[in-house]
Structure formats: structure tokens, C-alpha cells
Design goal:
Blueprint (H helix, E strand, L loop, with lengths): L34 E7 L7 E6 L5 E4 L4 H11 L18 H14 L6 E5 L5 H8 L4 E6 L6 E4 L2 E5 L15 E4 L9 H9 L8
Parallel strand pairs: 4-5, 4-8, 5-7
Antiparallel strand pairs: 1-2, 2-3, 6-7
């Protein structure tokens, strides 16, 4: 465990939420005890939530685990809202550095996504999906719990306001690529969630 952790200034009423047991002693992804706490939410409250880093699999996870209803309420109150396609210029080109770096990394690793169906969980404003569409993807689907509108489609990319804390939140359908960035640490059961996604991979599937 680390000392002097960064603490969020959110005002989510954790005192109203029953505390789930204690912090996990091992990584919830690989089971390794080589973990350290890197973040905690709630200054001085009993119902704190910590973010932990695993030294073995390098994954991030939260602990204690709260239920989907509590997580959904937390993100509704605490997370900034995402405006669809906000980082595009007048010609529809992506200007977000993060989205461009992520799309280039994927393309260099597995090839051009020509004709692919791509899903991004935690898609934010949808910039990564637009970048993949411009690189050749046929369709992009983004699920984002903090989207400012229920649903919107542009550049063959559909963004939906959708909670993504449980496997069933993802829905059905086959995809050639399913991408997530900074998502695993927010899931109720990341191992089961990843198993659900594996079943939705098409061929080729990444």
C-alpha cells in the first residue's frame, strides 16, 4: 500500500451506502497479492473506494466492490459529461491526440481495420471510433454512461448512453475489435465481463 494517496474531491454520499466488507487482498483480475493502492475516493468517509494496481498483470481494479446501482449513481453524479464528436474539425477529422495515438497503436499492432465492426466500451465523445472509421472500419458502436444524449450517429459511428458495469450491459452482436481504455477498474466483475466480450468477437477478432 502507498501513503499520501491522491484523494478525490467528489461529494458522492458514500455514507448512505452500505460498505462491502474490506479492501481486496489480491488482484481481482489475476489473483496476485502483489498490489498497491494508487487512489482513494472520499475524504474522511467510512465508505471509501480505492483503486489498486497489480504488479503482476499490471491491471487496475477498484475495491471494495459496490453493486451496479451504486456505481451508476456515482458516475451520474461525479463523472464529466461527454459531448458527441467534440474533437473533430470541419472536415470530420479527429483532432484528439489520445484518440489518434490509440487508433495508430491498434493499426500498427493488428493491421488496417478494413470493413470491420468496432465496439468501444467507455467511448467518451467517440473520437477513437471516428478515427477507426476513417481508417477503414465499416461500423463503430460506442457505449458511454456519461453521454449527454441518449443516442447519436455520425460518420458510421453510433454512440449510446449506456451503463457498462455488468456483462449484460454490453448487449449482443459480433465485432472484429472491442476496445476499452481505463474501463476495467470500473467494472463490478471484470473477469466475467471480459469473458462475455470474448464471446462477441468475430473472425478476425481482437
Amino acid at each position: 500500500m502507498t501513503a499520501d494517496l491522491p484523494v478525490s474531491e467528489d461529494r458522492f454520499p458514500w455514507h448512505e451506502v452500505p460498505r462491502p466488507e474490506v479492501f481486496e487482498p489480491v488482484c481481482t483480475l489475476c489473483g496476485s497479492p502483489d498490489i498497491r493502492q494508487v487512489y482513494k475516493a472520499g475524504r474522511g468517509w467510512k465508505n471509501q473506494v480505492g483503486t489498486f494496481h497489480c504488479g503482476k498483470c499490471t491491471g487496475l481494479f477498484t475495491s471494495p466492490h459496490h453493486g451496479a446501482d451504486t456505481l451508476t449513481r456515482f458516475y451520474d453524479l461525479h463523472f464529466p459529461k461527454h459531448t458527441p464528436f467534440k474533437s473533430l474539425d470541419a472536415d470530420g477529422r479527429v483532432t484528439s491526440g489520445d484518440a489518434l495515438v490509440r487508433s495508430r497503436f491498434i493499426i500498427e499492432a493488428i493491421g488496417v481495420p478494413q470493413g470491420w465492426r468496432v465496439m468501444e466500451i467507455g467511448s467518451g465523445s467517440g473520437d477513437f471510433l471516428v478515427a477507426m472509421s476513417r481508417a477503414g472500419a465499416k461500423e463503430g458502436v460506442g457505449l458511454e454512461p456519461a453521454l449527454v444524449v441518449p443516442e447519436v450517429t455520425q460518420f458510421s459511428v453510433t454512440l449510446r448512453r449506456q451503463a457498462v458495469t455488468n456483462p449484460d450491459d454490453v448487449g449482443e452482436g459480433k465485432f472484429n475489435l472491442i476496445a476499452m481504455f481505463h474501463v476495467l477498474e470500473h467494472l463490478v466483475d471484470p473477469v466475467t465481463f471480459l469473458g462475455k466480450l470474448r464471446g462477441q468477437l468475430d473472425s478476425p477478432g481482437f
